[in-house]
Design a protein that fits this description.
With about 350 residues, the protein is α+β, with helices and mostly antiparallel strands. It contains 13 helices and 14 strands. The strands form three sheets. A seven-stranded mixed beta sheet has the order 1-2-3-4-5-6-7, with helices on both faces. The chain has a five-stranded mixed beta sheet with strand order 11-12-14-10-13. α3 links the parallel β4 and β5. The chain is globular. The two termini are about 20 Å apart.
Length: about 350
């Protein structure tokens, strides 16, 4: 999110908290070391009790993006750093319930809040945003080109230094869109330039921000079909040719070493080969079907993006698991991160 947008959401949320008879003050956190990023601290007080938080502003929180947001907020807190307070434009009632269950404190611009301290408890849920907030939220977000380019760079960080034509081919985007996307990534420091060479500012924060943006944006457009699998339990024995289709989501997590029994099967490919339809006893799923499901999702990346032998890239498996919002899938996502992604995308 751009700094100006974050500032608007923060200011509206502070005003909403003050409407609950809370004393709220905001100050910039000056980093102790030059390489650290400046943050924002929010102090909330009622009567003689007070609590200080590190503000984490996220726009457009959804069921699909919640897992990625929680994964980011649960990163270890630096010594002397106050706990994170999730600040966003609106938290729906189901999301508010999930955040409370996860003991993640939050506040939004609509007046919803969950603040629990030794001195006071603030719990407001069910308020809806006004029309202006809805319009603001709908008008902004990561472009599909940016999501695709960032995914290609996450899969191959060395690609950042490559010519535009190579990046465009890997990301499956128009070459003409690259200058604007790269400039935007440099402005928000996702890409850094040193000695006239670009490099990816790789961190878990970047990975989680991409996963969140993918969940609320591009992911919905990848779904091309839903099927009921009569042979659901036999999925490990299905014949998938990696040149045409690959496992994603829960079955990919299982193949990558997670202790997870898939509840939904996900395959990435342009179409389902006839042999695969036979192996899985697949039939189109009706709108009320929720058991034994297979999702067919369309690949959005270029041919040069690296993947595992049977699955899509681990970063996409990670994002798809978080997008389910399911607790067991989020645990599997953490396993994928620790075993396959942490070295390239460290917490910092």
């Amino acid at each position: 999110m751009k700094t100006a947008e974050a500032g608007v959401v923060l200011e509206r949320t502070v005003q909403a908290l003050r409407a609950h008879s809370l004393a709220v003050s905001v100050k910039a956190d000056v980093p102790a070391r030059p390489e650290e990023k400046a943050g924002t601290w929010v102090r909330v007080a009622r009567g003689r009790g007070s609590s200080t938080y590190s503000a984490v502003v996220k726009r457009r929180l959804t069921q699909g993006s919640l897992g990625a947001v929680l994964a980011q907020l649960r990163q270890p807190v630096d010594a002397g750093q106050p706990p994170a307070l999730l600040i966003t434009d609106h938290v729906s009632l189901p999301l508010a319930d999930r955040l409370q269950e996860s003991q993640q404190q939050f506040a939004d611009a609509a007046g919803n809040a969950y603040l629990e301290t030794a001195a006071f408890l603030v719990l407001v849920k069910g308020r809806k945003p006004d029309a202006k907030q809805i319009a603001l939220r709908a008008s902004r977000g990561f472009s599909n080109s940016r999501l695709k380019v960032l995914f290609a760079l996450i899969c191959d960080p060395q690609l950042a230094a490559a010519p535009y034509r190579t990046i465009a081919a890997a990301a499956n985007v128009a070459l003409g869109s690259l200058p604007a996307v790269v400039a935007e990534l440099q402005r928000d420091e996702s890409l850094l330039v040193q000695n006239r060479q670009r490099r990816l500012n790789a961190s878990k924060r970047l990975l989680d921000e991409w996963a969140q943006a993918y969940a609320v944006g591009l992911r919905g457009r990848t779904l091309s079909g839903r099927y009921v699998a009569g042979n659901f339990a036999g999925w490990p024995d299905w014949h998938l040719h990696p040149a045409h289709v690959r496992w994603g989501g829960e079955p990919a997590a299982k193949l990558l070493g997670c202790d997870l029994q898939p509840g939904v099967l996900t395959i990435y490919g342009d179409r389902l080969p006839a042999r695969l339809v036979g192996d899985g006893h697949l039939a189109p799923a009706g709108p009320a079907a929720y058991q034994g499901l297979l999702e067919l999702r369309k690949p959005f990346w270029g041919a040069t993006v690296a993947a595992a032998p049977q699955t899509v890239a681990p970063a996409l498996v990670y994002a798809d698991l978080l997008a389910t919002g399911n607790g067991r899938c989020c645990e599997a996502a953490q396993t994928i991160y620790e075993s396959l992604l942490a070295r390239a995308f460290p917490m910092r």
